[in-house]
Write a structure and sequence with these properties.
With 70 residues, the protein is mostly helical. The protein has helices at residues 2-13, 17-42, 50-69. It is built from 3 helices and no strands.
């Protein structure tokens, strides 16, 4: 799924070096959030702090805005 997502992001940025870099950064940010989500969903013995949860919500919103601006 992530390979397809990166491919779509890069297709959207096609030929524009700045947009390609932005797409790669967005992809990395999404992967980092996915890791946190996986930890929260499947590693229930670990505590997720409120600060981490709030960061995830804010970061997801920023990613959404950045995707729409790509």
């Amino acid at each position: 799924v992530h390979a397809r997502m990166l491919s779509r992001l890069l297709d959207k940025a096609s030929g524009d070096t700045r947009k390609i870099k932005q797409a790669a950064l967005l992809h990395n940010r999404m992967i980092n959030l996915k890791k946190l989500r996986t930890q929260a969903d499947y590693r229930l013995q670990l505590n997720i702090t409120r600060a981490t949860a709030e960061y995830c919500v804010i970061e997801a919103g920023k990613i959404g805005v950045d995707l729409s601006n790509l």
